[in-house]
Amino acid sequence: MSRAGPTRRALVTMAALVLVAVLAVGAVVANSGRPAATAEAAPAIVVQRAHASAAPTLKRRIVLLTIGSDSGAPKFGRGGSAEGGRADSLQLIVLDTVRRRGLIMSFPRDSYVPIPGAGTNKINAAMAFGGPRLLIATFERLTGIPIDYYVLTSFDGLTDIVNRVGGVRVGVDMNIRDSFAGAFLNKGSQTLRGPQALAYARARKTVPGGDLARSRHQGQVLLGGLATYQRQVAKDPARVMAWLAIMRDEVKTDLPFPELLRLALFATRVPPAKIRNQVVPSVPGSAGSASVVRLLPGAYSLFARVRAGRLS
Amino acid sequence: MVVSPSNNPVRSMAVLLALLTAALLVAGCTSGRDRPAAPTATTAAPPAELQVKLVTTARGPERGFNAKRAAKRAAPGVERFLDRYLTTAFVGAAGGKRGWDELLALFDTPVRAAARKQLDALSLGAAAPQVTAVRPKRASARAVVLYGRRPAAATVRLVFDATADTANGSEEIRLRSVLQLLATRRGWRIAAFDSRTGAPS
Fold first, then answer.
1. What is the pTM of this model?
2. Which of A68, A102, B18, B144 is the most exposed, having the fewest neighbouring CB atoms within 10 Å of its CB?
3. Do A272 and A223 form a contact (C-beta atoms < 8 A)?
4. Closest residue of chain B to A10, computed from CA coordinates
5. Contacts of A32 in chain B (CB under 8 A)
């Protein structure tokens, strides 16, 4: 036993040394594939975590004339071509693409205005006299605002557009019971199907404010369409293609397709709240035996402000 | 006195020591095996072939439109465009010597300036000079093509995963993009984009 003690101590010491040596060797082996902890061992590369998005840059101001024709709608018993009918709904949409804001100026269809080469008449007659070109000329002369493009649809077209996009959410601003237009709606934000949207945009006979209220409602339907479009595209960017396909079926326009696409992409970035919906200041009146709407001086002030670039 | 080996403390200690040594050596070697050797510019694998897996659907007029046939016709052009995009933005951009003109030419003019300012989210970007090779791992896309008489526009959701090699190692990169495409006389162009790049989180 007395001889076993030193041997054991020696073995324990040796074991400890070997252990230390082995651990050291093991550590070196284990670390051999790892870069030394110096500045050179910084992450291999720095691929930036980045997010980018962009819509097309358009010219600073775009002016569109949207026209709802009372013809070219077989479903409503309105024959003929949309371009050959009278314009029941007339909006001048002015977009400031830099500030991403806009103005919808709704014109009562009975606005009594000079029509180039056709005397003074209701503005909606201009299209029946000379198609969209004469209507544009009438607007340009009236407002002094150059129009870039027109977009024309019919009763059928509006109904189909709204149905095919799944309805548009509109803030209906009054209770309406109008059997002439088929509008039976309660006040409040709601999703309108095609026939309801058309009825809301047409109702005037039993509606307080008549033609002026109707013009305001038409602007609301447009804004509801924009909000619906933006909501759908935010969920599924490919909805842009669906909307464009529908527009190509249902509207006539002189917008070249690349511009239409760019505008559609730009439209995803304009908050509807930054688009003001205004009926051109006007009052009901008469011209001979005809009921007309006469523009007030405020209308011409509005045109001047818009020409000067002020949309708010 | 007969003593079994297991009962001999000295021998037991020696056996234990040997086992411990072996175990530690094995452990040391094993831990090294788990870690890939740091690649260098000279040892980097050659770039894998880029092939975009594309699923295409088509939209067109409500009446008289054969969506299946239109999608089939549109797919090769979209696939070629995406291949070209990923090549100029990533696979062929390694080294950073080619610049970005070829990539920027794939953008529609009204969005090109915005693309130039945001290259890091659309391509290797500022990291390109450090990258020696990009090895694609996954390139897939879903396209919805608007079709008239011919393709007019498309929305593409693009997914691209790759490994980027440098002299100091490698890093996984990923791209997740939504590209809005416009068909022009020169082929597809990006008219709008929403794109993210970076290492996987």
1. 0.79
2. B18
3. yes
4. B10
5. 32
